Amino acid sequence: MASNAKKPIETAASAVLAKSSIAELRKLRVDEKSNELQLHGRVRSFYHKQLAQEAVLPLAGGLRVVNHVSVQN
Fold this sequence. Notes:
Elements: H1 8-18, H2 23-26, E1 29-33, E2 36-40, E3 42-43, H3 46-56, E4 64-67, E5 70-71
Parallel strand pairs: 2-4, 3-5
Antiparallel strand pairs: 1-2
Protein name: BON domain-containing protein
InterPro entries: BON_dom
Organism: Roseiconus nitratireducens
């Protein structure tokens, strides 16, 4: 598999966020690295940061979810 190819869990998590009714969540990036599912990007509230994490958590399987999303008011 090519190093830039998306992995199934990464793809599924990205798809869930892409379908969110919250525009900010649709702009977040998901990366699967070293047994982690990482969230990256910016949102305007801690609530949205938590929503993003909770949206991908059921898809993570054995991966640890690491939320690198920053909150900017």
